[in-house]
Each structure stands twice: as C-alpha cells, then as structure tokens.
Amino acid sequence: MQIRTRNNVCFRDITKLLAPSTNLRKFGELFGLQQAKAHFPFGILNSVSVLSRPDLPADPASWESDLHQFDAEAFSSKLSEAQALFAEAKCSNLGDYLKAYLILDVEILYHATQKWRRELKTVIGLDFVESRKFTISSLSYTAGLKNMEANLRIGSFFPNNSQHYALLRQGMRGYVNILATAK
C-alpha cells in the first residue's frame, strides 16, 4: 500500500483515501477532468519483448487480465480510445504506449487529488496532506476532533453532539459489517 525511499519519501496508494469501489477512472470523472483513464492490453504483457510490438492488439482476450475484466460489448470504443492515445502520444510500439498510459494515470491522479484537496479544505477545513492524514479513517478521526474542539464548553470534555457521533460512527472501520452482523 506504500513505498518508502531511502530519503524517506513515501508513495501511498490513493485507494486508501477513496471509497472501496472507486477506481482511477471514476475518481477523475468525479472531478470532471477532461483526461480519461486509458486502457492497456495487460493480457499480452508476459515478457519485456512484448513491449517492442509495433501496434495495439485488436482481439478482446489481449485486453483482459487478473486485475481487469474487459467488457466485450464496449470493446470497440475502448480500443478506439486506446488507438487514439497511441496516435496522439506518437507511440512507435507498445513500450511507448505503456509510458503514455502511465503518464496519463499520474496526470489524472494529480489533477483529481488537487481538486479534492481544495474541496476538502473548503468543506471541512482539512487538507489531508497538510494534516498528514492519508486514510479515510484518519481523516474521519481528525474531522471528529475538529468538531469536538469547536463544540467544547467549559466543564465539558466530550460534547453531546449528534453530528460528532455520526462522524465517528461513519468513520469506524467495519461499521457496515457490524450493523449487518447485528441484524
């Protein structure tokens, strides 16, 4: 979920900050980005020599992988999108396309994350980078603490506040599973 370099730079998986079913494509769409997540034929990526292939495969099986089931009904439009990126990025082989694919992922992640940071700062007064909170649980906990701090009264060290309880309840890991098990 994270990679830390010798210089103590940490790269974290964005999915720890997103809802469980949210992928990079949905994340970019959520913020109305013009860039859309590209498609890659992971099904044929079984050796480094494949990267010298001069074009994209045209068969649907090449686009399936353990990570992603390629929708056969939407295959032609997805292949067209991939071919457009191949041409736009002036790719001469699959290796060039992989670079363009990964650069596009980084651009989408950067732009959507920056928009999300600004939105969070506006709505709840928190920036997850400034506060060093990199999971939904830690953001929820910090938001709860901010709410508690705002509602503290002299002589009261724990506010009786329904919004605070709702924030804590929704931020708990496994809350949905607890409710489902209890029924």
Tags for this model:
single chain; 183 residues; mainly alpha; 3% strand; elongated
Write a structural description.
By secondary structure, the protein is mostly helical. The protein folds into two domains: 2-133, no CATH class; 135-183, no CATH class. It has six helices and two strands, in the order E-E-H-H-H-H-H-H. It has a two-stranded antiparallel sheet. A hairpin with a 5-residue loop joins strand 1 and strand 2.
Radius of gyration: 22 Å
Helix content: 40-55%
What's the total number of strands? 2
Give the low-confidence spans. 174-183
The gist of it:
This protein is mainly alpha-helical and 183 residues long. Helices cover 47% and strands 3% of the residues. A hairpin with a 5-residue loop joins strand 1 and strand 2 (10-12).
List the helices and strands and how they pair.
Layout: E1 2-4, E2 10-12, H1 24-30, H2 75-88, H3 94-124, H4 136-151, H5 162-171, H6 175-182
Antiparallel strand pairs: 1-2
Helix pairs in contact: 1-3, 4-5
